[in-house]
Amino acid sequence: MAKANGYAGDVTAREAWDSLARDPKAGLIDVRTRPEWSFIGLPVLASLDKQTLCICWQDYPVMQVNEDFAQEAAAAGLAPEDPVYLLCRSGVRSIAAAQALTAAGYGACYNVLDGFEGPHDEHGHRGRVAGWQAAGLPWRQG
């Protein structure tokens, strides 16, 4: 059952990684845009014998919400009973995606706090304070 905020809750990148490692049915959806995947990077789950599912929450460049998001998650092999971890740049779009999947009948949708890059550091750079990159989890660029 979803919490009052419309999804199962928030987890750190490390908690998401640990859950993905423990549960063979758990999946990770990166909800960012194609340019973000190409130019900034992607989480890598190869050591877990999994793939990051790349399903845009919003279509670039107009940033219109992807109305087929839940259908694309199902087509990628995620079942409504599977735990799903959703990640974006900083953890905002992934909340909306977690709420949408929950509304579509998925029971365990988690937002990955601070997303892939996290907040800016004191020099205005991302990827160093919090999030997937800062946690030292596997990722690749390009």
As a whole number of angstroms, the C-alpha radius of gyration is: 14 Å
* CATH fourth-tier homologous superfamily: Rhodanese-like domain
CATH architecture: 3-Layer(aba) Sandwich
* Percent strand: 15-25%
What is the averaged pLDDT score?
Answer: 94
List low-confidence stretches: none
Structure notes:
It is globular, with a radius of gyration of 14 Å. By secondary structure, the chain is an alpha/beta fold. The strands form three sheets. The chain has a five-stranded parallel sheet. Strands 3-9 form a two-stranded antiparallel sheet. The longest helix has 11 residues. The protein has one domain: Rhodanese-like domain (Oxidized Rhodanese, domain 1). Helices cover 24% and strands 19% of the residues.
Summarize this, please?
Helix content is 24%, strand content 19%. By secondary structure, it is α/β, with parallel strands linked by helices.
Which descriptors would you attach to this protein?
five-stranded parallel β-sheet; 142 residues; alpha/beta; Oxidized Rhodanese, domain 1; two-stranded antiparallel ribbon; 4 helices; 9 strands
SSE diagram, text form:
Blueprint (H helix, E strand, L loop, with lengths): L8 E3 L1 H10 L4 E4 L3 H6 L2 E2 L9 E2 L3 E2 L4 E2 L3 H7 L7 E5 L5 H11 L4 E5 L26 E2 L2
Parallel strand pairs: 1-8, 2-4, 2-7, 7-8
Antiparallel strand pairs: 3-9, 5-6
